[in-house]
Amino acid sequence: MTEPKDVERNCPECDGTGQDAGMKPVRLGEKIEFRPCTKCGGSGKIKEAAN
Fold this sequence. Notes:
51 residues, mainly beta, Molecular chaperone DnaJ, HSP_DnaJ_Cys-rich_dom_sf
């Protein structure tokens, strides 16, 4: 019998972008800073066990 393999899927927290989805409003002239997603660590992918 074969072992189940992990499957890579898009992170549901950031929709596969790898960036924090929680954006705060900025004033005109301010720089927007992107933070890595806390769930996937910025990769945009998570590994799940295959069924």
